[in-house]
Structure formats: C-alpha cells, structure tokens
Amino acid sequence: MSNPTTAWFNNKQTQDATANLGLYCKFNNGQSVYLVRQGKFNVFTPSITYYQPTDSAVVEVRHDAVNGNPNITYLGIGDDYQNDAMRFSAMITSSHKFQGQAIITQLINRQEYLYALFGNIPLGTGGTNDLDTSEIYSQASLTNNPQYPSFIPRDQLDFFDSPGIGLSYASLTPYLVASWTAWASCNDHFNTYFRFKPAGDADNIYVTLGRVDWDWHGSAAYIGGFPSDPYPLSNWQVTGTGTGAPAFHQLNDFPIWPAVFNP
Description:
The protein is mainly β. The chain has one domain (about 45-255). It is about 0% helix and about 55% strand. The chain is elongated.
C-alpha cells in the first residue's frame, strides 16, 4: 500500500560487501508478509597520485599581457607571463570497467581590502568558501584506447592558477589628493578538489578523490608621484607576502559553496 524504500550509498572502496533488505508488505485483503533479502556488491574507487612541482609560487605586482589586460596593474601570484604561478597535478587511474570524466573544482575564501579616498573598503567573499568562477576549473577524460581495450583508463589533471587583485581603485586616491597614500591587501585561501564521474548513466555525479589546500597573501602600497600613474611596477611597493605550500588530503568530502565568486 506504500513504498517506504529509502536511498542509500556507500562511499568507501569495498569488495564483497553485503546489502540487507527487509521489506514489510501489507495487502488490501488484510494479509501481510515480511521479506528478507541479501546481496553482495563491490565499490570501485579510482586511484589518485598527487604531484607537486619543485618551483614555488611568488607574490608580486604584475600586468596581465597574457589575458589581454596589459594596462591593468595587479597584486598576486606570478608575473606578466604567468611564470611563478601556483602549479600541481594529479594522475587519475580508473578500473578498466569504468571510464569517465575527471575535473578540478576550486573554492575560494578571499579577504581583500582597499585603502583609498573613501576609507578602508572590505571586499572578497565575506568569510565564506565560494565557488571559484565555475564548477569545472579544468578537466580530463579517462577513456580506453580502442586499439588496446585492456589498457586501464588514466589521465592527468594539471592545475595552474595565478590569482590576484586589481590595483586601479587604490591608485585613485593619490591621483586626486597628493597628500594621501593608498594601498591594497589580499589574503586568499583555496580548497582545490580532484573529482571523478563514471560514464554510462546521466544520473552519475562527481565524487571527490582528494583535495589540495593552499593560500597566498600580500599587500601593495602606491609610492609613485602625483598625479598617480599605476602602470609602472616600480610605483608599487610589495610587503608582507607569502604563499602556503599546497597540502594534499586524500578524502571524499563533497565541495559545498553558498555563492559563485568571479574575481
């Protein structure tokens, strides 16, 4: 007369696990029966191998010639041509039975301040871990080679990021008032998730294989003349910089975010 069955899931790799079902059935004629069933199931989890490059990220003032913004000055990781950026990789290897898609999803918690003509302006995510731009930060396909179907699907996810903040607003103060100084600061914390979704069913979802936590911080003060010219990098003094070494954690937590952040 009713169907009280609830959904369940197992997020640990296991072999020959037992699933139990107890079902109480009541019929319109007043009769009832209790059915007990058992079944075996296996759970396969792709393996993840994390790679950390030897070079470290550097906080500096830059332009953005690569992305088409050469006239804007930034404080962040990396130089004009994306050297000294944050980089790491992971090799995702699946069972030969399970092809699929691997992606990177990143959350950002940003504390940003601009001290300008209107005072100390707080910006950023307001203390929450927001989705950094979009759910798919980068992706890779794990597929069998048709010529060698016995080969295990694997592919490498390469991560690259050079976050930063624009310094245009901070430079407005000395442009208008010669006796005022201006500065900007940023403190970013990132949670970078490696995730996998098996192919074959539209209802399949991405599950987490591991997460990398990293951060950077720094401040830049305008030290140029009046009126201000924010373009020369020598007009900015960078202080209090640092980067947190990426820390890899093998876990299966889902990334959760309250909003999308578009820096």
